[in-house]
């Protein structure tokens, strides 16, 4: 029974018992991660790795932090609404971001309007920061579209289901920016960075390695933002890597940093640093945001089968929203009225999302033939005509029956 | 007009497209200083610079994946896959990403990417250098697939593929790279008009008795078979060069078969689920009452492409084509 041996440190087969050792190694870098607000809500004196990045948030005011708090509460609320909508049969699937709000809002808030995002399928918080309305994200999960939005409208590409594919698209887009002289000009409204989001599981994909190679050798202005939420569906970090992920990029010639992904200020700081570096022409960067997926991988998943409750409880103490709320309350930067207003606003957005979801029209069946090609394609066009004629036959029968 | 090889005609077409549109960029392994392993991009990096003729890392998925991003930024990447058998590491990006992005975005994102692949056998190469992967791409909605057979078509079709707003898999018949033909001088798609749209088939030789349907490297073989049959007085063969594999120009095929009453499809790819199977099905649907004989196929076997010393047994040649013509006429 080799399966039972894996993960048992005292297992008889040494070759198979390395599992726990790897896990310890991948967590080892936790001491080196950038953190600016403690889980208890205290603003920390920058130490170690944080010293390099703290300067990037010196200008951040309490008003900014209130704004980030607001974003995180809204994002969590619409995420929980979407989960509920799935349970009620309104969505076929939902990939929850619960627990990853700080990683997404902190990085999303670091971006300029011209910066371009290549998301996975879980970047609802980044979408919010880029101005994408929450309801826009639902079509894919309701089965009403395959994505559907215009990436150019908010500089936010379509969600990508195939793990890691988007890191190459991001790199190519960044190569285009170089050719457009939109890098390193010193003009704040012109210089542009691309952020490719990925998960810890994606780092095992060949495409991600190829994206690191291409971005490095061409010095492309792309930042890889890896949300290490500890679990790739049921597989832990130890099944993806023997080294902390943020160290992997250095082998490609790309600087890497691990940040406390549940610390919105620290996430903002490192993303600002890395995107600024990219915009100025100094090349790609890699950020590992150390966070935790508090819910299931998707609504089809059952995390109780593979992870222990104590681990989840431990991460609850590091909640990204609670710590900012504690900071704001402790310093007097926000009062109860503010927190209540944010709750109300989040509730209103959730209510609007619910209505938008339930009233979303099903696509016309013949729309499956639309947009497959930009120019007429004789075979697809012929199939559309045949399908319409076939369906029109039923319309005649219905008419006849009703007469 | 001047006499040019098919490989040089593609080079001229690429050059014309790059002159016409500064957004056209070439990407691939060894395409810069070397000019590609078949020299198809010879001299282009020297004239257009390293930003437009990009030597890439040896990573096919990376080449196609980054081309997608460049296209999203407004560029028109033309990527070279060094050999047919090397396209499979890029297969995921071509099939799951390149083909589908336009449809997924409701037409907002268009990816005018050309994937050039030297394909087919007959040059005595080692394994993975002689394959015919067209069926995989024709099977995928969202891609166009085209294959020129003559230098003139190669010159125009590569420019049409680059100008096309859809992704195009452009299959170059590698053993015909050195075939000569007449190619116009001093024109481009911007300055002149191509004789035929990319999606149209061409009747390469008219005949009354049987239609040979072919594309890419098999066109020359089929034309030679037709000449041999004419000399022997055994059959008057019509040869249709498909040129476009997706979409198939079904009306031209049907018109020809309805005239002759007989069809033989010839391709190098394995017969199982190849283009021949598709064509046979469409012909029997459209030409049932015109057919004098079943639609026959001549192709590669449903095996891996064999070692070079026996590839002549695998590849359809003039005799196998004529044997199929005889079987068709025997009905």
Could you give a quick summary of the protein structure above?
By secondary structure, chain A is α/β, with parallel strands linked by helices. Chain A is built from 16 helices and seven strands. In chain A, the strands form two sheets. In chain A, strands 1-2-3-7-6 form a five-stranded parallel beta sheet, sandwiched between helices. A two-stranded antiparallel ribbon of chain A has the order 4-5.
Question: How would you describe this structure to a colleague?
Answer:
- The complex is a heterodimer of chains A (403) and B (331).
- Chain A is an alpha/beta fold and 403 residues long.
- Helices cover 46% and strands 8% of the residues of chain A.
- Chain A is globular and about 75 Å long.
- Chain A starts with a helix and ends with a helix.
- Chain B is built from twelve helices and 14 strands.
- Chain B has a seven-stranded mixed sheet, with helices on both faces. Chain B has a five-stranded mixed sheet with strand order 9-11-10-13-14, sandwiched between helices. A two-stranded antiparallel ribbon of chain B has the order 1-8.
- The mean pLDDT of chain B is 97.
- Chains A and B meet through helix 8, helix 9, helix 10 and helix 16 of A and helix 3, helix 4 and helix 5 of B.
């Amino acid at each position: 029974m080799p399966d039972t041996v894996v993960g048992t440190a005292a297992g008889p087969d040494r070759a198979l018992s390395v599992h726990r050792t790897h896990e310890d190694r991948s967590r080892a870098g936790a001491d080196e991660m950038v953190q600016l607000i403690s889980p208890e809500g205290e603003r920390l004196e920058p130490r170690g790795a944080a010293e390099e990045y703290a300067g990037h948030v010196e200008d951040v005011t309490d008003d900014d932090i209130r704004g980030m708090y607001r974003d995180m509460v809204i994002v969590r609320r619409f995420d929980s609404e979407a989960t509920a909508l799935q349970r009620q049969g309104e969505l076929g699937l939902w990939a929850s971001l619960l627990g990853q709000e700080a990683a997404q809002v902190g990085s999303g808030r670091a971006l300029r309007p011209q910066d371009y995002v290549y998301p996975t399928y879980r970047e609802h918080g980044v979408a919010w920061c880029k101005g994408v309305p929450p309801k826009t994200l639902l079509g894919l999960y309701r089965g009403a579209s395959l994505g559907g939005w215009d990436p150019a409208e908010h500089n936010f590409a379509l969600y990508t289901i195939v793990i890691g594919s988007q890191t190459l698209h991001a790199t190519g887009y960044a190569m285009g920016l170089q050719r457009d002289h939109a890098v390193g000009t010193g003009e704040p409204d012109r210089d542009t960075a691309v952020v490719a989001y990925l998960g810890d599981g994606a780092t095992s994909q060949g495409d991600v390695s190829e994206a690191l190679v291409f971005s490095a050798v061409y010095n492309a202005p792309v930042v890889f933002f890896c949300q290490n939420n500890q679990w790739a569906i049921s597989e832990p970090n130890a099944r993806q890597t023997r080294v902390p992920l943020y160290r992997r990029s250095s082998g490609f010639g790309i600087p890497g940093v691990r940040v406390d992904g549940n610390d919105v200020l620290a996430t903002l700081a490192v993303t600002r640093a890395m995107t600024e570096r990219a915009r100025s022409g100094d090349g790609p960067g890699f950020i590992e945001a150390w966070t935790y997926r508090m819910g299931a991988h998707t609504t089809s998943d059952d995390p109780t089968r593979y992870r222990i409750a104590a681990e989840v409880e431990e991460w609850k103490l590091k909640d990204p929203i609670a710590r900012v709320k504690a900071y704001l309350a402790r310093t007097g930067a926000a009062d109860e009225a503010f927190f209540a207003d944010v709750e109300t606003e989040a509730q209103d957005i959730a209510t609007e999302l619910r209505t938008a979801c339930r009233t979303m029209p099903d696509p016309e069946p013949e729309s499956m033939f639309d947009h497959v090609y930009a120019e007429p394609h004789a075979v697809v066009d012929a199939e559309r005509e045949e399908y319409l004629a076939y369906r029109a036959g039923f319309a005649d029968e219905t008419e006849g029956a009703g007469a | 007009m001047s006499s040019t090889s098919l490989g040089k005609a593609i080079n001229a077409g690429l050059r014309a497209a790059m002159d016409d549109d500064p957004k056209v960029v070439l990407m691939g392994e060894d395409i810069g200083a070397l000019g590609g392993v078949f020299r198809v991009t010879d001299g282009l990096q020297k004239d257009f610079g390293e930003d437009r003729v990009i030597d890439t890392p040896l990573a096919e998925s990376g080449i196609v994946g980054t081309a997608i991003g460049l296209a999203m930024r407004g560029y028109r990447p033309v990527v070279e896959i060094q050999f047919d058998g090397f396209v499979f590491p890029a297969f995921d990006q071509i099939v799951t990403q390149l083909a589908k992005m336009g449809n997924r975005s409701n037409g907002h994102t268009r990816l005018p990417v050309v994937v050039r692949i030297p394909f087919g056998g007959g040059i005595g190469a080692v394994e993975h250098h002689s394959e015919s992967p067209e069926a995989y791409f024709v099977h995928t909605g969202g891609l166009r697939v085209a294959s020129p057979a003559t230098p003139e078509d190669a010159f125009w079709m590569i420019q049409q593929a680059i100008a096309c707003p859809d992704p195009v898999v452009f299959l170059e018949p590698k053993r015909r790279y050195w075939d000569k033909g007449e190619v116009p001088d001093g024109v481009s798609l911007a300055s002149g008009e191509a004789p035929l749209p990319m999606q149209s088939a061409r009747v390469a030789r008219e005949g009354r008795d049987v239609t040979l349907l072919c594309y890419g490297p098999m066109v020359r073989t089929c034309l030679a078979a037709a000449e041999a049959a004419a000399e022997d007085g055994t059959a008057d063969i019509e040869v249709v060069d498909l040129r476009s594999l997706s979409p198939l120009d079904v009306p031209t095929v049907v018109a020809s078969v309805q005239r002759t009453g007989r069809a033989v499809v010839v391709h190098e790819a394995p017969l199982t689920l190849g283009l021949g199977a598709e064509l046979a099905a469409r012909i029997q649907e459209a030409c049932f009452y015109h057919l004098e004989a079943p639609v026959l196929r001549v192709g590669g076997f449903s095996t891996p492409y064999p070692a070079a010393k026996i590839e002549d047994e695998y590849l359809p040649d003039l005799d196998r084509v004529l044997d199929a013509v005889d079987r068709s006429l025997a009905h």
